[in-house]
Amino acid sequence: MIDLTAAAAYPDVQVQGSYPITAEQWADAPHQYFCFVSRSSGDGITGSLAGPGPTA
Fold it and tell me: Is the pLDDT of residue 14 over 80?
């Protein structure tokens, strides 16, 4: 999860998700995905934009 309050400091923030690309990879592994946060300007991010994470 992303902390939307912290992310608001960066008007050009981008969030991308990635997951296994084939049916075999999806079937062989836990159903997980990864999130990547960047800025369209290429400038850095100071601090953390990490949210609280899942509750379960």
Answer: yes
Q: Integer distance in angstroms from the first to the last C-alpha of the chain? A: 13
* Angstrom distance (rounded) from CA 54 to CA 41: 30
Contact at 8 Å (CB) between 1 and 42? no
Taking the C-alpha atoms of residue 18 and residue 14, their distance in angstroms, rounded to an integer, is: 13
Q: Global pTM? A: 0.66
State how far the Cα of 30 lies from the Cα of 36, in Å rounded to an integer.
Answer: 19
Residue 24, pLDDT > 70, answer: yes
Q: Which of 5, 19, 17, 12 is nearest to 38 (CA)?
A: 12
